[in-house]
Specification:
heterodimer; A: mainly alpha; Arc Repressor Mutant, subunit A; 2 domains; 9 helices; extended; B: alpha+beta; Jelly Rolls; Phage tail protein beta-alpha-beta fold; 3 domains; 15-stranded mixed beta sheet; 3-stranded mixed beta sheet; 20 strands; globular
Amino acid sequence: MREKHATWSALFAEKRATLSSYFLRRVAHRWDAQDLVQEVYLRLLRIEPADAANIRSPEAYLFTVAANLVKEHAVLRQQQPLGSDELEQVVEQLVAPTNLEADMDSESRQQRLAALIDRLSPKCKAVLIMHYRDELSYREIAERMSISTNMVKKYIVKGLAACRQRMAEYE
Amino acid sequence: MNEPTNFDAARQARRITEQAVNWYIEQQEPLSERQRAAFLDWLRASPKHVAEYFAVAQMHGDMKAAASLKQLPAAELVERARRDNPIVMFPHREKAMPEPRHEQAARGTRRLQLLAGAASVAAMALLWAGLTHRHTAEARPQQAQVQHYASGNAAQSLALADGTLIQLDRQSEIDVRFDDHYRRIEVQRGHALFDVGKDSARPMLVNVGGHVLQDIGTIFEVRRDAGGDTLTVISGRVRVLDAQNSSSKGDELPLPGVAIADLTAGQQIELDASGVSPVHPAQIAQATAWLPAEISFQHETIANVARRFNAYTSTPLQIEGEEIAQKRISGVFHADNPQAFVAYLSTLSNVRVIRDADRIRVVAAHPVQTRAAHL
């Protein structure tokens, strides 16, 4: 199990963003997200201290547990969107997401998010857009804005938190 | 106040979001062993944390697409950010000019200068001199309605229309007046904690005696008592500015003056008729000790947190074992619900909780060898 976990971690590091949005999309449509969270949480609580120390990436672990639960649940309900027991297949599907409904959803979500970005302070907004749209590094942004890289990071965190709080109001 | 209020809930939700985003961003670099353990502890502290982490991950996946919908070139974004410089005034209605105590050359950036000023006592006028040009004094609309809030013998939580949450201690009074261009609050007396809702088009100005505070997305606490006024910034930033003489009635806005102080999270300043103290680090726990409903702590040892809970309960928590006692944690709990805190402690690794009749003991657990990996 642990070896698999290590492989998965490496894979995960590459596909991080896609992966999380992948299973969250699946969850949104196929399973109550709250059930998933409860179940993930219980599994986290059951980790023994000795095992906890061996988890190389708690985040990868978190998403792996979640992805597996989604899969198990799908099997239980005989929806079988993944078609196999192999985790690797999850990743293959990541590359070519096919759920049209989910795609439309994500488009409206992105527009909502774009509107929220406009409501941020000019500094937060500038930092977020340069980072996510123009893919500038913290250092590059820091130079342009005449602030420290640490401040850039703070603006990113602040901006994301503000957006997330407002997204939560839609939910 | 034995029930969680809206104020507490919203504040807690906000805090969890911030923590989730922080952890998410931290993962861009490999975590240290300690960070990994802390992250796992955080996840295991509450299902709310897990849910929020997923939500942040999902939103983050949309960020590139959302940001790419924006047309403004980077140079223009930077320029707009540079022009955005929110400010607050210290009003002076008397002839006396401010008496400089410290002066410090302005650096290339727009960092504030620390310039202590003598502020007159009764001045009520306040001024916002940000570079949002569309709001000039002439353009002010008709008088806003004033809402008066007085807490009487019980502490009170207020949720204002703009999302601002205010916690009033007993025997505290504030006036609230919002119009199209400003959100203004005057603290008449007592303790008030502000968790300011965001509305960049309408700055929030808080008047405390002769002083005015302005903030952007901040939590701060104001105390007015016989000993003078104290401002404590819990998170975010508050700027204080000097103002020039006000021409007429207390409700008019005076012209801009000089920045007096800039406070960030964890800082405190004393304000009184003769001026302001230097900015100094605040004991946040102390400054917010009057908050009735919750116990909130940042990077505090478990031993100290337990002590704070023990003021509220007849079955005290006893932390046994130096390692547990000295472990530092952050969080918010309802002061009248030490059980929640105990439940949290029991989720930490190597911790075991023993409930005796007259006390709750928290002891080190003996690590058990097991192979289970719940994947």
